[in-house]
Amino acid sequence: MGERKDGKQKKKGPLLDPALKRAFFYLKPYKKEFSLVALALFISTAVGFLQPLVIRAITDEGMLRQDMGVILRSVLVLAVLVLISQGVDLWQTYIFADVHNKSYYAAFHQVFEKLLHLPKAYFEDKNNTEILSFLQMDVSQVSSITDRYMVMSAGYVFRIFSGLIGLFIISWKLALVVLAMVPVKFFLVRGLSKRREKAMDEMLESSRDFSRWFGDNLGGVDEIKLWNLFKSREEAFSRQQGALLKLEKKGAMIDGWNTFWEMLLEWSVTIALYLLGGWLICTGSLTIGAVFAFASYSGYVTGPVSALINLKMFFARIMPSARRLFQFLDMETERDKGGEKAAGRPPRLEFQNVAFSYEESRPILRGAAFTVEPGEKVAIIGQNGSGKSTILNLLLRFYQPGEGEILADGKDVESLSLESYRSLFSVVSQEPYLFLGDILENVDLDKSASPERIEWALQQSGVQGYLPRMPEGAKTPIGRNGAKLSGGEKQKLAVARALLKDAPVVILDEATSGFDVESDAYLHDIIVNQMQGKSVIMITHHYHNLAGMDKVYRLEEGVLRQVDPEDVLEN
Ligand SMILES: Nc1ncnc2c1ncn2[C@@H]1O[C@H](COP(=O)(O)OP(=O)(O)O)[C@@H](O)[C@H]1O
Ligand SMILES: [Mg+2]
Questions:
Q1: Which fold is adopted by the domain 349-570?
Q2: Domain 18-329 is in which class?
Q3: Distance between CA atoms of residues 502 and 58, nearest Å
Q4: What is the pTM of this model?
Q5: Which of 10-24, 34-48, 145-159, 422-436 has the lowest mean pLDDT?
Q6: Three-state secondary-structure class, residue 547
Q7: Which one of 70, 221, 231, 437 is separated from 107 by 20 to 30 angstroms, measured CA to CA?
Q8: pLDDT-based confidence at 8, cuts 50/70/90?
Q9: Does ligand 1 lie within 6 Å of residue 429's CB atom?
């Protein structure tokens, strides 16, 4: 959205920071609500304008003339005015609560959508705690742009005008005293807001580092116990929290100084008013009631003017989050430009001279080539770290090849829509993820399969074999990422859900490494003999699993060589 110049414009930028400008877009859908708020503000301003006049009447015409009738009538009017303005306030609160909820939801929803479509690489150097914590923080900061405070401030313009009218009607001399505070406050805030923004930025980064560290240690809690790392972790904790709290204090103190100066300023104005007002009363050019009314109007001006100028402080707090959030939202999602749909049958898959590296300095594949004809069963073998899983990452379009091409039925896979392309594959990855929930929920991920098919998948994968031992059978909760299952049981579950997907191409990445011998042989038999018409790509270190495969490739030094399974078995 909008062009942004390269490099950060630090010094004299445009009036509004681009990130801030973009944050204002979250206000856009609420035009109707804001016109209601404008109406409410107008009403409460009008009511507010009348109140000091009534008070003046009570003082000058009621109290000073000792006329109880005037006092009673005026008090009644005052009560009605108060009721109206408080009622309108309540109504505004309602509208704002609604708008704020909706905009928070909209922003968070946008973030969630984005997150799910980011490339695999994004997640490889971050942990979940870190991601959740910084996104949540940024979303809530940015969506605070729809806070009541922020929009009310816009309405303060009415109030300031009405106050100014009141002030100048009563005494222009006093009015000038009040106005003298504006430039002082302005320059004060200008100085402080820069520091506030910097403090906020540092705090966000530090809190992100902390969440990252925290999530990491939660993930490794078993290791902390086994290696007895408590002391070092506690030290690190106090170090990080200490730094974070220090930054938070710094931010709070900047706010504190702002309030301090603001109060000092307001009291200076008040003292000046007493002085000048007293003098005007003594010389007889103003009544006591008029001075009271003046004091009220002056509150209408000083308070809102401060609030408007304080918006700069408010934005200073939002800005670092806005920048981070929009940077996040501008990240490129997974490549999905192709419009063609993949056919619902096994395509002829082909790697042509594919070169790839995660990091520039270290090539993983250097011209890998292989083909999988429709219905063919192909095995890939090779040492740890030779790049076997990398081949699958490329095939499944989690990464793009640096050189060469990956083709499906002779067409570049990128010409196919990602969704339809990935629906071609049933994958058991090397480290499958299991969701919270029970066994059944993890097998039938989208809750669409018939009981018979589920039964079949449980049977074939070998899950059926251990279900009787489970306290609640297929309804047994499996814990975080299957923590309540053994390694082999987890793998069987992953196989079951891949079978249930029933896609034309089956991919197994060391999928049976944790299987016991019988289960492995059983599943292998199914793969080789009962999956007619499906293509299979199997990565394995169990060489007996090469039996019955149509082709075997060995990955070595970044290239694939077709080998004879017999030779492999003999060596
Ligand atoms: N996301 C990644 N970023 C950087 N390097 C990676 C990444 N994934 C794997 N590697 C490196 O690439 C090499 C090949 O990994 P992989 O394909 O997983 O090997 P394997 O043949 O054991 O499946 C490994 O040496 C590993 O260090
Ligand atoms: Mg691997």
A1: Rossmann fold (3.40.50)
A2: mainly alpha
A3: 85
A4: 0.86
A5: 10-24
A6: coil
A7: 437
A8: very low
A9: no
